[in-house]
Amino acid sequence: MTDHSARGGQNDATGMEMPIGLSRAVLIWEALEVAFWKPVSVLILFLAIAITGLLPDLAPWLHATVLAVSAILFAGLMVQGYRRFHLPRYEAARRRVERVNKLDHRPLESLADRPSSDNPIQLALWQAHQARLRQRIGSLSVGAPDPQLARRDPRALRLIAPFFLIIALIAAGGESIQRLRTALVPNIGTSGPTLTVGIDAWLTPPDYTGLPPLFMSSSEKQSPDTSDTIPTAMQGDEHSTPVGSRLVVQVSGVPDGATLITPQGPKPMAQFAQNAVALEHEILKSGTFSIQSEGETVASWEIRAVPDAPPVVTLPEPPIASVQRALTITHTVGDDFGVLSLRAEIERADRLAGSAQSSAQGDEEMKIITQLPVPDPSKYGTKRRAYRDYTAHPWAGGEVRLTLVATDALGQEGRSEPVTLILPAREFNHPVAKIIIDLRRELAWNPIQNYRAVSDALDALSWEHNTFDDKVTVFMALRQAVRALTPHRRTGAAPEPQAIASVIDLLWKTALYLEDGGVSLALQRLREAQQALMDALQNGADAAELDQLMDELQQAMQDYMQAMADQMRQNLAEGEQPPEMAPGENVISQRDLEDMMQQLRDMMQNGMTESAQQMLEQLRNMMENMQAGMQQQMSPQNQQAMEMLNSMKDIMESQRELMDRTHRRDLERRGESNPEQGQAGQQNQAQRNQQSQGQAEQGQRGESGDQQRAQDSADAVLQDALRRQLGEVMRKFGEMMGEIPEPFGRADEGMGDATQQLGDGKPGEAVDSQGKALDAMQEAADAARNAFIERFEQQMGMGQQVPGQSGEQTMDPFGREASDTFRGSMQGQVKVPDKGGLEKAREIRDELRRRAGERARPPEELDYIDRLLDQF
After folding, report:
1. Which residues contact 296 (CB under 8 A, 6 or more apart)?
2. What is the pTM of this model?
3. pLDDT one-digit tens code per residue, 811-824
4. For residue 773, what are the CA distances in angstroms to 328, 757, 781?
5. Residue closest to 420 by CA, chosen among 405, 441, 398, 442
6. d(CA 267, CA 258)
7. Reported confidence tier of residue 572, pLDDT bands at 50, 70, 90
């Protein structure tokens, strides 16, 4: 029925060519594994031994014998495998597919059969049979190779060689290829043992750079102790390092020593062990550095010595004065490896640059040198702003030349371009303070020539008590200054420089006392407290010291804010309007400062020193540009209150003028205006007594009486108008505040009595009533002003705006954008953690402390925990 001639044919049309072809490939792989697993294992084992570097340590004849035996063994096993290898037949591949897929009765062979006749019925039956076979077969799997090596190698010796090879590769690292080459080339013709040339070299940059050591390539080479040739280990490696770096080289396996060839010449290497030498050399010039032994180059490197460039310091913005008259210096500093120190040098502009010498006294022939904080780019960026107060210096108000000088660890200096400016000076409004400052400047500018004139002027000024309100402190200070300037006046000898310096300082403090009371001194204490805390943070002070300095800063801040508030209240009491603050300025209240101080304290307690330093720096910027004032955008009630105070001021001025006029007229009527008028009045009265009392004289006296009554009536009308104005102010004040102070009632009563008395022609009595009314109005104005301050104190505060940034958005110490008050979202440059973040930091700190107390922990862990706790 079927034609079996086609069985085993390669061109059947069953559609199973792909799985059968893959099955035949698997059979070929199995045959290769069976035939060649032994020579492959021998080859892998030889590579493992060669990479370990053991063969070069053998004697040359033994090294060659191992190579020969290994080659013969490998070749013999390859021949044996070749003889055992046979390509599998197609029928075997087909049968493997049937075996893998567990197909009974050889269906693939049936699919390859053909009918023996062309009978249509038989063909139809045969096609139906093949269709059923294909349906039963479905998809076929090839299966994984199974060479059954375990039956031929029951001890699994074939796995040992790959394991050794992996270990050898890991141990050799990047020298595997070099070791393999050495193992394949025995040193034929030598009789002595071979040595391994080991080279370790690294570059250590100077400590001030902060750079880690740079390790250069190490090598191991085989070198017979009687050989004239040592292979090159390294050539052409290029490295860059700062000038002054130390090149450390250690070479082993050189029984005859070695020499380091440098651009400065050869440097013999000192022996530190058997067949080992070492050398440490300072890199001063670029060039090729090589190691030579036995006349051959063992290693070489190209090293480029990078010189340290001097610092670069610039003034991107012109120096300006802050609100507190401190000199604001905005600068940028850059260097290869950091700046060691930064200072500001100030010279008189009328002197040649560099002609002055530094001095603590700031003499006219000297220059001012002030150390500035070195900016850390990681904390403050490339640009930083520093504040220095020179208002107490005698040069304040004069033209000077400013230069910044940056110094690096090598002592190299970088200087900025000199800038000419007017050194900020304190502006004094008190007339006596102005005189004292002018005399102080003359004394400091030329003490030898001007001390006599200054002493005489201070002597005369000290006795004019009324000019400084009879203040005993001012009087005693002026007298002390006079005594200090005149100890040697009889001999003509000039005062000592120490005396001149003490007088200059005393006059400055006296002028400040006259001008603003304790505001300037409080500001000075605040600056000192801020600087002390900043230095402690930078120097890593302990928690107790930081807490104490924080208390001092908080107290100094409170004193300064209180002094500014007291000064503003005093100005209001004297009728001066507080300065208005623009909407773009920030307003700070006492509560805001307390919150800021608490945030700063929490940062330090939780080890957030960098954030604390940044916040303290911005707090310093804010305080240097702070002034007391009133918000510009006041509510209608506030504006009405200010108008009411202005009306009170106008009423009191009008009342004072009316009282003075009434008093003069009363004196004129009684003939007591002045002594001369009194004498003339007495003479006229005597003459009138001697004259006859005629009708004409009576008419003249009647006409004079009518004129006096008219004047009294006009003053009575004016007095009544002032009383009505006061009544209107009282009404508005009552509607706004709800309660009218008692002095208002007494002032109204006094003005009413004065109106009645003027109408009755009694100016003498009216003067007393007007005086009582004026005193009562002064008390009422003070009471109204205090009530106004107490009710609207939220609109009074301390405003700050960074100078030189007009129109730009300002930031408060929390990094927030400028707003009406500091309350708001804390977003900006300083990352202030929220309450949850601080609590998490405390939990971490407490957990670290608990673990640090468990001394049974490993020393490495305890050391790590201690280093973490150092940050807290």
Report:
1. 228, 229, 230, 232
2. 0.50
3. 444 343 443 333 33
4. 51, 14, 12
5. 398
6. 9
7. low
